[in-house]
Protein 1
Amino acid sequence: MSYTNAILELRQMLSDTDQHKRSTRKKLIGNVDGSNLVFVTYDKRIVEDTFQAFVNGLPVQAVITDPVAGEVAFAVAPLQNSTVQASYYWQWWLDTELTTFLNKGAEAVGLSTTSATTDNAYLQVIPGLKSAVLQMAASMSAESLANYLITRKHSAEHLLEQDKGTDEGMPCV
């Protein structure tokens, strides 16, 4: 099994294919002041060919300039006080990250690696251990995701979205 096949299988296990998670008409983050062309999606790792931008509910021309960061560039700046949204699919992990989890999974099941083989440890796993390595990689991926979500919950970007970009923040309840 190559990395390509293993990544596809791991994405299926994790429900992280390019068609699993959809954001529909989700607000974009950025100044809607009539001159700003660059906005950011709340979700990261956007599947580029699924992206569609909307201003005041109507489709507009915009492109993903950085799919990992979720950066979007509009052809025409949305007018002040416009509603700026987008629909797209997104993924939790990059292929390079899943490759790392597969290699760490190979090491976790007892594959003896040297510094020369650590970067491709998964490729050295005997066929009978591939399933165990995929399970270990999925476990490590899930743990990484949990850590990311906890960190993101307390990030400035999340708090900005939560308080709708005002300096006052949300009222205490």
Protein 2
Amino acid sequence: MCRIPPNGVGRAINDGLQAATGDYILSLDCDFQHLLPEVRDLFDAIAGGCDVAVGSRFSRHSVLLNYPLLKIVANRAFHAWAQFMLLARFRDLTNNLKLMRREVTKNLVLLEPDFAVNAEMGLQPLIMGYSVKEVPISWIGRGTDMGTSSFRLFNFGGGYWRVLRRLWLRRFLGVGSYRALTVKRPKDQLGGSLRHRRQ
């Protein structure tokens, strides 16, 4: 697939989802941060019945190597506030390593042009009532010989809070930019009992 500007992680992922034709859609960073054998665990989770499997960097059995302290603090703060606002329990749904059933990707409303698309892809299925499972993974920080990330917390962090605000408006008021999101499961699986499994 050949893309043309404008660029941006969110735009690239959105284009990829639109072009994908398989029954299952895998997204991941191709910069050696993940161990490929662990991707099999995501497929096992989907085979076990969940709709979305997310590689979790902060589950009990996850391993982090060279993960920047500032990003850890920002990540945990965002997820703590997201749990409070959305009345749900999860540890890490913003990692790009995700495997989804095609049905889920077709119902996403992706508006963020940059890294905050990872929050949209992780949290929207939860709001819609899909079964989401976090799978522990290993995360390895890239070395100097592997290039540098274009992610800058102070440049792109605002997008994550924008996503959270939109999700709150959709979840509790049914309005806003995400109003097209449709609940796909019985209503009693929402709220504090959102069907979500962690490890």
